[in-house]
Amino acid sequence: MKRIGFIGVGIMGKSMVRNLMKQGYEVSIYARTKEKVVDVLEEGAIWCDSIAECSKGQDAVLTIVGYPKDVEEVYFAETGILANANPGTYVIDMTTSTPKLAAKIYETAKEKGIIALDAPVTGGDTGAKAGTLAILVGSDKDAFDACHPIFEAMGKNIVYMGHAGMGQHAKMANQIAIAGTIAGVTECLVYAKNVGLDPQTLLGAISTGAAGSFQMTNVVPRVLDGDLAPGFFMKHFIKDMAIASEEAKDHNTTLDILDHVLAIYKELEEKGLGDLGTQGLIKHYEE
Amino acid sequence: MKRIGFIGVGIMGKSMVRNLMKQGYEVSIYARTKEKVVDVLEEGAIWCDSIAECSKGQDAVLTIVGYPKDVEEVYFAETGILANANPGTYVIDMTTSTPKLAAKIYETAKEKGIIALDAPVTGGDTGAKAGTLAILVGSDKDAFDACHPIFEAMGKNIVYMGHAGMGQHAKMANQIAIAGTIAGVTECLVYAKNVGLDPQTLLGAISTGAAGSFQMTNVVPRVLDGDLAPGFFMKHFIKDMAIASEEAKDHNTTLDILDHVLAIYKELEEKGLGDLGTQGLIKHYEE
Questions:
Q1: Which of the residues A161, B41, B216, B256 could staple to B185 if both were Cys, CB 3.0 to 4.6 A apart?
Q2: Is residue B120 less than 8 Å (CB to CB) from chain A?
Q3: Which candidate, A125, A127, A129, A133, places its Cα nearest to that of A277?
Q4: CA B181 – CA A178 distance, rounded (Å)
């Protein structure tokens, strides 16, 4: 495989496109606003005027867009991927989206001789940049094996999770863990500040112990620097948690803490803070 | 310093006594039930029939007992540490207890020429065994420096947090982070099982990424092995979270997620599960 179409060139997508080009892939891109992707075009990506154009004649088409409704449109519109990709194309949705939609794309693609994979990622903007994303893949095992070199260009921990949709389920499990963890480390920081501890000293003391986490090590320092800019958008995390909560309920499972963290984030979003990074959770405690 | 009295030879305490003896300290111990500490006595610890006996003529007296009321008794009883330790003795409470009690011990000790430190630890049974505990110390900086070699025998990350009580505050911050984190990883595991993911594969995929934490890496595998035995007792974690919640409120801070996790654990305790390890949280989701 050599020719890749890439749709959704945002914070994450740009780094992924760069890493694909570094490995010699010929990457065609489509974005809603061309101005925003001038940098990667200058670095060698090929511009497409439409999703249809970006889907035709590729070995694989990769997508990483915002919401399930965007995924739905990009795949199922008349001008979308499934109507325009050649039979035999691998179409890989790396958006965090619903397991149900992943299964639907897989089935529809199959009827057209197209092979769909769900392959959401974790590792955030830093992982995308460093090419160290974890990639959680659902589809047929053969399809996973065939696309492995593409995944390897972008990530380090590339794991086959099972049939179509299981990549998304794995990502949901990941987001559920993050929800509790980011709440815990945020409340830890709030407490530390309010009782008069030096947060930096505290972090140095506890971040390698039983309280330690990626969230503590990577997110708390941003908060301490007053940096609430999105590495990962709060509004996207809310979308993910809402999917996870619903999927859990579909499986007769209530995740109390997930639902509580989601409720707090939704309050922040209603106050217009959805464009902050997930670390903006601190705002809930600062009123 | 050479002679150490050690009171509270439980899961953690035994490992700590062993590590002190390994560094050449002469360790006298007191425990409520002698039979339970026969192993460390055979390894060279000296038996004392009372706390008073264990407090006299020592360079330092270390305590790691269960609850603040135990700390109160061990320090303030007529037969306790402060009434019996020689002036100049360092008395170090390594129990996770209240910042207020730590300050009270410090003040009372000072009147008697005794130097008190609060030095709760983190790292659990495995950290105690390996001598890699984090030790969070509150007291005068001079006292911290004087006791540093003792701490070094038991821990790796030994941090001065500030005046008396600040070690306890740091430990509270630590427990607050754990509360959210353990809830997140437990709900992650519950979700994974219920949607049909293979938990081991999932852990391999996500534990080094943004969802990763000590709790995920060290606690979830115990749950998967069906091992809910206490590395750290649920009932002690409940005590810690209750102190943290109260201290937060004293500082005009409501920690929503901490309070919610605490409420769930209390329910489990009311069902008679307080003697499980903290990973027993999974029981909440298994009904």
A1: B216
A2: no
A3: A125
A4: 8
Work out the minimum CA distance from A87 to partner chain B, whole angstroms.
30
Residue B287 has what pLDDT? 66
Q: 3-class SS at B120?
A: coil
- Show the low-confidence residues of chain B (pLDDT under 50): none
- Could you give the 3-state DSSP secondary structure of residue A138? strand
The Cα–Cα gap between A125 and A266 comes to 23
Per residue in B159-173, pLDDT (tens digit) is 999 999 999 999 999
Report helix angle B256-270 to B166-195, nearest 10. 70
CA angle A232, A134, B285 (to 5 degrees): 80
For helices B234-250 and A166-195, what crossing angle results, to 10°?
Answer: 50
Q: Which residues of B touch A249 (CB under 8 A)?
A: none
* CA-wise closest residue to A279 among A241, A225, A243: A225
Q: Are A274 and A234 in contact (CB under 8 A)?
A: yes
> What is the tens place of the pLDDT at every residue in A131-153?
999 999 999 999 999 999 999 99
Do the chains contact at A209 and B127, CB–CB below 8 Å? Answer: yes
Query: DSSP letters of B143-171?
Result: HHHHHHHHHHHHEEEEEEEESTTHHHHHH
CA-closest candidate to residue A88, choices A3, A13, A152, A151: A3
pLDDT, tens digit, for every residue of A148-207? 999 999 999 999 999 999 999 999 999 999 999 999 999 999 999 999 999 999 999 999
Q: What is the distance between the alpha carbons of residues B254 and B241, in angstroms, rounded to a whole number?
A: 13
* Residue B37: closest CA among B7, B62, B57: B7
> And the tokens for B107?
């003040």
Q: How far apart are CA A213 and CA A185, in angstroms?
A: 8
ipTM above 0.90, yes or no: yes
Average pLDDT, chain A: 96
Give the one of B173, B195, B252 whose C-beta lies nearest to A169's C-beta. B195
Mutate to test the interface with B, among A125, A191, A197, A216 (most CBs of B within 10 A): A191
Q: Are the CB atoms for B4 and B62 separated by under 8 Å?
A: yes
Residue carrying structure tokens 């035709």 = A56
CA distance A43 to A282: 37
- What tokens were used for A128? 């995308």
Pairwise CB contact (< 8 Å): B157 & A184: no
Angstroms from B40 CA to nearest CA on chain A: 26
Residues within 8 A of A (CB atoms), B 234-273 only: 244, 247-248, 251-253, 255-258, 260-261, 264
| Residues linked to residue A26 through DSSP beta bridges, in sequence order | A3
Contact A156, A131 (CB under 8 A): yes
State whether A216 and B166 contact (CB < 8 Å). Answer: no
Q: What is the DSSP letter of B213?
A: B
A278 → chain B, closest CA residue: B210
